Fold this sequence. Notes:
The structure is a single chain. By secondary structure, the protein is mostly helical. The protein has one domain (1-59). It has 1 helix and no strands. The radius of gyration is 24 Å and the shape is rod-shaped. The termini are far apart. The relative contact order is 0.06.
Amino acid sequence: LNLMSDGMSRLKGLAQGLNEELRLQNEQLDRMAPRVDAVTDTMTRQNQQMNKLLGVKPK
Length: 59
């Protein structure tokens, strides 16, 4: 029973550590999202301009 308790305590610690890591990564993703959206918009516009200059018709 002690072995099982020790294993469960270790598993709990690992789960809590994983939860904290995921929380931190989610915060980072939340901070990155607006910049990623802005870059995506810029690239879309630039691709449209390049296609226009090259005479490529939009799909």
